[in-house]
């Protein structure tokens, strides 16, 4: 029962991540199209857009955020597989000691 709730929560997080990534790429494409429309030569506009310091910093931030989210999702998936649930033998050993 508990694992099904974890799975549902994990699916919701993945959907939210996919939505965020999709919206960011759509915004970047819209900005690039606008820049290309303004510029007379689209290749020069693309080159200028890639070399802007803000663009480099935002790209680095986006890749770091994606890697971090993927790492956290991986931990959420794989950590429950590695947890150890040992059986408590104290009741049986206590009964053996009494008799």
Indicate the topology.
Layout: H1 2-38, H2 42-51, H3 53-82, H4 90-98
Helix pairs in contact: 1-2, 1-3
List keywords for this structure.
99 residues, mainly alpha, 4 helices, 0% strand, rod-shaped
Q: Averaged pLDDT, please?
A: 77
Please tally the β strands and state the result.
Answer: 0
Helix content: over 70%
Summed up, the domain count is 1
Q: DSSP helix count? A: 4
% residues in beta strands: under 5%
Describe the structure.
It contains four helices and no strands. The chain is an all-alpha fold. It has one domain (2-78). It is rod-shaped and about 95 Å long. The model has no long low-confidence stretch (mean pLDDT 77).
Briefly, what is this?
The protein has 99 residues and is mainly alpha-helical. It has helices at residues 2-38, 42-51, 53-82, 90-98. The protein is rod-shaped, with a radius of gyration of 26 Å.
């Amino acid at each position: 029962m508990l694992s099904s709730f974890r799975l549902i929560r994990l699916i919701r997080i993945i959907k939210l991540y996919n939505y965020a990534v999709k919206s960011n790429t759509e915004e970047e494409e819209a900005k690039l199209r606008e820049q290309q429309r303004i510029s007379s030569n689209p290749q020069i506009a693309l080159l200028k857009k890639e070399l802007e310091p803000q663009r480099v910093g935002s790209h680095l931030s986006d890749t770091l955020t994606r890697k971090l989210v993927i790492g956290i999702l991986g931990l959420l998936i794989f950590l429950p597989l590695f947890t150890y649930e040992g059986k408590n033998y104290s009741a049986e050993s206590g009964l053996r000691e009494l008799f």
